[in-house]
């Protein structure tokens, strides 16, 4: 039987990549400290920052919200109801229940009132649902956070998410994406500051934190994410991790330490302007959200 | 031995040839890796070498997930 590294109690959690075992209380403490250290390491935000956590109702975003609130940060939640049937209904309930439990505000955007639900948009657009969803989420996160007076958007991206994206970008040598793969995206050109405080926390560590904190979260996957390539990459990296614990953390951390600075010298000529319709930052005359909305409107009119 | 587990909001009955079942046998049966999955027995996360009996309340957590922001 493993014992807690900090006390003599029976350990519930063993972290092979750190060679540490913890009882429930010391694991929760370790997790909060690790999040705090990451925030400080990347100078993400400060105690007086106004933070908005993008909440999906899943383990990562709710664990992040919980940890930031416990650490004493000024943090509210932001939920987008994508209108994906039962999945969205349940995830909204989990998000609302959690907000009530910790006594924080949850701002909600209903896609059906703003543009259309994801399933409805999917019938008018040939792009994969995750691509449409990404455009919509990024747009509303940025716009609403600014309107509501927040300085920072924090997302629940964890180490497994970051390692999978890094792996994909490396396989394709997507220099433009690699250059921007950093846990802090600075506020500039109409974009609000975006941070990923769980970037050094694995997916399993995040789930164990949620379970041991008594956080109820949606366990089902979004029906549109079934068969996503990102899951294949995660499974592949997991095989390496099982054989050699610490591989994912090393892959990601060493990229940030050694490769990211080198990539910053790579010339990039992207001129950001403002969307002529909504005024949000855009590389084109009309931003991708507004062009999606126009396309939907045109197709709807055609079918009437 | 038959053991019923909760997995992603479904109750699943697993059958084992051996009469002694460890937490890791459950993960193996479900084809899940210890890198992203774990077992909660009677509301506590357990070591994968811990034995599971019929009367235990067992939940299997698979932490892997797809799309995000």
What does this molecule look like?
- The complex is a heterodimer of chains A (304) and B (69).
- Chain A is an alpha/beta fold and 304 residues long.
- Chain A has 2 domains: 44-220 and 229-267, 3-Layer(aba) Sandwich (Rossmann fold); 269-304, no CATH class.
- Chain A is 51% helix and 12% strand.
- In chain A, the strands form 3 sheets. Chain A has a 6-stranded mixed beta sheet with strand order 5-4-3-6-8-7, with helices on both faces. A two-stranded antiparallel sheet of chain A has the order 1-2. A two-stranded antiparallel sheet of chain A has the order 9-10.
- In chain A, α1 packs across α9.
- The longest helix of chain A is centred in the middle third of the chain and has 19 residues, at 129-147.
- Chain A is globular, with a radius of gyration of 20 Å.
- The mean pLDDT of chain A is 94.
- Chain B is mainly beta and 69 residues long.
- Chain B has a single domain, classed as Beta-grasp domain (Ubiquitin-like (UB roll)), CATH 3.10.20.30.
- Chain B is built from 1 helix and 7 strands; from the N terminus they run βββαββββ.
- Chain B has a 5-stranded mixed beta sheet with strand order 2-1-7-4-5, with helices on one face.
- Chain B is globular.
- Chain A binds chain B through residues 1-2, 11-14, 24, 54, 56, 58-60, 130, 133-134, 137-138, 141, 155-157, 160-161, 202-204, 206-208, 211-212, 219-222, 224-226, 228, 230-231, 234-235, 238-239, 241-242, and chain B through 8-9, 33-38, 40, 44-47, 61, 63-69.
- Give the C-level CATH assignment of chain B: Alpha Beta
The secondary structure category of chain B is: mainly beta
Radius of gyration of chain B over all CA atoms, rounded = 12 Å
Number of helices of chain A: 12
List keywords for this structure.
heterodimer, A: 304 residues, alpha/beta, Rossmann fold, 6-stranded mixed β-sheet, two-stranded antiparallel sheet, 12 helices, 10 strands, globular, B: 69 residues, Ubiquitin-like (UB roll), 1 helix, 7 strands
């Amino acid at each position: 039987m493993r014992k807690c590294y900090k006390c003599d109690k029976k350990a519930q959690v063993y972290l092979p990549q750190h060679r540490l075992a913890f009882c429930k209380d010391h694991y929760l403490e370790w997790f909060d400290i690790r999040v705090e250290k990451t925030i400080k390491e990347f100078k993400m935000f400060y105690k007086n920052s106004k933070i908005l956590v993008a909440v999906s109702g899943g383990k990562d975003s709710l664990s992040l919200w919980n940890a930031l609130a416990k650490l004493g940060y000024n943090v509210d939640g932001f939920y987008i109801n994508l209108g994906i049937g039962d999945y969205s209904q349940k995830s909204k309930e989990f998000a609302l229940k959690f907000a009530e439990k910790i006594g924080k505000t949850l701002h909600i955007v209903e896609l059906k009132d703003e543009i259309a639900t994801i399933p409805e948009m999917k019938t008018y657009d040939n792009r994969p649902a995750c691509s449409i969803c990404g455009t919509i989420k990024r747009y509303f996160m940025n716009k609403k956070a600014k309107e509501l007076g927040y300085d920072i958007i924090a997302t629940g991206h964890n180490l497994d998410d970051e390692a999978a994206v890094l792996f994909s970008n490396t396989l394709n040598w997507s220099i433009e994406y690699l250059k921007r793969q950093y846990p802090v995206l600075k506020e500039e050109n109409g974009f609000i500051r975006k941070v990923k405080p769980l970037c050094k926390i694995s997916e399993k560590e995040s789930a164990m934190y949620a379970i041991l904190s008594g956080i109820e979260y949606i366990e089902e996957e979004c029906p549109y994410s079934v068969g996503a390539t990102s899951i294949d990459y995660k499974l592949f990296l997991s095989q390496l991790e099982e054989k050699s614990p610490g591989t994912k953390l090393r892959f990601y951390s060493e990229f940030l330490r050694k490769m990211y600075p080198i990539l910053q010298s790579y010339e990039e000529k992207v001129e950001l302007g403002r969307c002529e319709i909504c005024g949000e930052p855009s590389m084109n005359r009309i931003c991708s959200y507004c062009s999606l909305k126009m396309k939907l409107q045109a197709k709807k009119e055609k079918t009437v | 031995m038959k053991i019923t587990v909760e997995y992603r909001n479904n109750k699943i009955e697993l059958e084992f040839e051996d009469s002694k079942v460890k937490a890791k046998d459950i993960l193996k049966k479900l084809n899940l890796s210890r890198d992203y999955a774990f077992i909660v027995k009677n509301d506590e996360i357990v070591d994968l070498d811990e034995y599971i009996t019929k009367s235990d309340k067992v939940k299997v957590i698979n932490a892997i997930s797809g799309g995000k922001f």
